[in-house]
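fyi for ur records
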Amino acid sequence: MPERALQTYARLWEFETWLRRMVYVELRAKAGDEWAGSLGTNKKAFNADKELKHMPTPEMNALSYSPLSQLASLIQMNWECFEPYFPPQTLWEAKLSEISQIRHRIAHFRLGHPDDYDRLRQFLRDVDQGFWTFCTSYNDSWPPLPHSSDAVANHFIDLHPLPWSQIETGEWIQVGNVNREPVIGVTVNRLRRPWVDRPPEDGAPGYLYDIELRANDRLFDYPTVLENTEGLHAQLCHLGLEAFEQSIRLTLPAVLGSGRVIEVVEQFIKSATYGVRRGRNPITPKAQALADEWPEYVLGPHDALMYLGPGMNGRFFKA
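which gave:
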């Protein structure tokens, strides 16, 4: 196999995988459960794949069965959600059209032009910072203060391990003793997507709730928790597993409304409680391997969306 064909394919796989993830997050933040309303045409591809019972795959996201042209169309129709990440729209569409041709050449086993790989690498360099911003912004959450200003945070305040308090200078600090009485502690934070510049309101698009469930002096049996809560997963944007099995991260679109978010989190906690075990040694040491067995919405500790934060510097695609 020609080396440049292999390199080109690998770069395209990397780019399209992350483009799908970006589109998913931004559309979930914008439209909640209605995010995939325009992707009904992908049911045929989805059903054809799932009929192959002898060779199952974990992918369930509608975007995993969407061609690049459909991704481009979704971005065009919702450009305001992607403008912070990409070059000006006309330039982005021209570059993506060129990359699409390179993709077709590789997908149909043509050798392509000698400069295709260099063009693709330059394109990745052009959008590198945008993907970095997307990924790091997913770990840039902050607590709603005071907690009473947010219905979700206020509802779970009795389960907060160490609530924030305002001191005489007006600053907010965490002080006191950690509340270890609940079996599962709950910390509620917010995530703002970069395309939003308005304050958060109940049910407003562009925000996600970033909620940590922590097992107090216990561990989560991740396989049991995932199985017990599977019926709630469609309401989540992502479910994150931590390496030491002490916590679970839930992100939910704020556009669902505080009432629905509270309902989902309460049901999740109730079901997850049956998956809490006493002990100090992780039950499933390979949390990332477990996450890889589940659909795309389950993130393992090695996933960049779980650890790459805004205080870090670097390059995304390393092209």
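Residues 90 and 202 are 34 Å apart (CA to CA). thats all i got for now
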